[in-house]
Write a structure and sequence with these properties.
6 strands, six-stranded antiparallel β-sheet, alpha+beta
Length: about 260
């Protein structure tokens, strides 16, 4: 009887330690697995010069197509319809053209004309994208202007929204609830594009802060935009006259 009792006790003790050992193995395994990424991190975006050239050439062909339709329009309603279609084309194409530059290094004196081939400053990023999209601007001269003058070159003063000392939360709310489109935004010492869509926006710019290159940031990650005390914003695709001048290849003289 005593022997069987000892056997039962030893079996219970053995079962306990086996259970604890298995449990510790499971804990250690989950700790190891938990430290591993659940999936591979996506690679950092790289400049795409071939796509840049393809998109710019394709947009140029479409611009010429709509320009011809505009010239042949017999009345204002037809012209308005062409402007609307051209706006939709630009709002679709411009962000894709901008993103060809992602990963291109920033430099205060950067003047690259092709994604990944050299470095590019914030002003040159804006003017190079606009020129590539078919806007007749003075790329070099315009890139060297203050941000508000860059906006004034394309838009009338009444189309600009200037905010000084406004909390970013307020600015973000106003912008996401505003008219969708491609905006230019000027900051204290910076300039870039804001793409407003579906009550949110992306900030695409050549960043002079980490990671020191052309980036595409969501409204919550746009720290450069958030930290600026001065912000001036203008919707370049929301203005019919801007679209018309772009279609017809008219020059936008640099405002100084």
């Amino acid at each position: 009887m005593i022997v069987w009792l000892l056997v039962l006790i030893l079996a219970s003790v053995a079962a306990f330690f086996i259970h604890r050992y298995r449990e510790s193995l499971a804990v250690r395994w989950h700790r190891v697995v938990g430290q591993l990424p659940s999936e591979e991190a996506p690679p950092a975006p790289a400049p795409d010069a071939a796509k840049w050239k393809l998109l710019c050439n394709d947009l140029q062909r479409w611009r010429e197509h709509y320009a011809e339709r505009y010239r042949q329009a017999n009345h204002d309603a037809q012209k308005k319809a062409v402007i609307t279609e051209a706006r939709e084309l630009l709002e679709h194409s411009l962000p894709e053209i901008m993103r060809c530059w992602l990963g291109t290094p920033w430099d205060f004196n950067g003047t690259a004309t092709t994604p990944g081939e050299g470095k590019i400053a914030c002003g040159y990023f804006v003017t190079t994208v606009l020129e590539g999209a078919g806007f007749r601007i003075e790329r070099t001269t315009l890139a060297q202007q203050a941000s508000q003058q860059i906006l004034r070159t394309l838009l009338p003063q009444d189309d600009l929204r200037i905010r000084v000392g406004v909390p970013y939360k307020t600015f973000r709310f106003e912008t996401t609830r505003g008219r969708p489109g491609i905006y230019l935004v000027g900051l204290d010492t910076h300039v870039g594009f804001v793409v407003v869509k579906q009550q949110d926006f992306r900030f695409i710019h050549s960043s002079g802060s980490q990671p020191w290159c052309v980036v595409d940031e969501g409204s919550e990650q746009a720290l450069v935009l958030e930290r600026s005390n001065y912000r001036v914003l203008g919707n370049i695709t929301g203005n019919d006259e801007v679209i018309r001048r772009w279609l017809m290849g008219e020059k936008f003289p640099t405002q100084r």
